[in-house]
Design goal:
67% helix, mainly alpha, single chain, 227 residues
Length: 227
């Protein structure tokens, strides 16, 4: 089961929340709008626990014992004036957990900020590299002063794609440069390197490669064809 705070998977999320984040499971459910009746354990573990309980209930003596305990607990809760923690105590505990949660988010927000500004630039990249869920990553980005939006992510992905394409082109240019000074013409170089003259002209226009020294075309002619 995935923790919405750190984005990692756990079999028993309740134990993880109490020990790692110092957060009460009910506060966690309220924070992320999860129904109180939703179990915070892996589905397979929940199934095994349920199956084990059902097997034990097949024992009539055990079943009667459980029923008696349930009746006593029900009667005790009905007669109890103050059950559980006081409202003031609940508020204090919730505040403590909330403060601890915020400090955790604030600490990791620096990693998220660095990944957005100097890395992939996207929430998807943050999830992939840091293992943080999307909602938590956006919350951390906001804490770090970054108002992440779909347009922000789209622009970042466009820049990243251009950078990747340029890096790929530069790798191809390195292979072509082997033939740069060993051929009689630019056309022959392109043929030997396995690229088209159109690709060569596009590289010229982008400034990725120099004009071939033995090219029969003048600089003005090349510029004219590139336009």
């Amino acid at each position: 089961m995935k923790c919405e705070i750190c984005g990692k998977q756990y079999i028993n999320l309740g134990v993880h929340l109490r020990h790692k984040h110092k957060i009460d499971p009910d506060d966690y459910r309220d924070e992320f709008r999860i129904l109180r009746i939703t179990p915070l354990v892996d589905k397979e573990l929940s199934r095994r626990l349920s199956a084990g309980a059902n097997r034990r209930l097949l024992d009539d003596d055990y079943k009667m014992e459980v029923q008696e305990i349930c009746r006593k607990n029900s009667k005790a809760n009905k007669n109890r004036v103050h059950s559980g923690m006081s409202n003031a105590g609940k508020v204090a505990l919730a505040k403590r957990n909330s403060d601890a949660n915020f400090e955790y988010l604030k600490k990791r927000s620096l990693e998220v900020k660095d990944e957005i500004l100097n890395g992939s630039g996207t929430i998807w990249g943050v999830r992939k590299k840091l293992g943080i869920s999307g909602p938590a990553a956006k919350k951390m980005a906001k804490i770090a002063g970054i108002e992440y939006s779909s347009q922000f992510g789209k622009s970042a992905r466009t820049l990243q794609r251009k950078s990747e394409l340029r890096a790929t082109a530069m790798e191809r240019v390195k292979k072509v440069m082997v033939y740069f000074y060993t051929t009689k013409s630019a056309a022959e170089m392109c043929r030997m390197a396995g690229i088209t003259t159109k690709t060569y002209k596009n590289w010229l226009k982008a400034g990725l490669i120099q004009r071939h020294p033995n090219s029969k075309l003048s600089s003005a002619k090349i510029q004219e064809q590139l336009l």
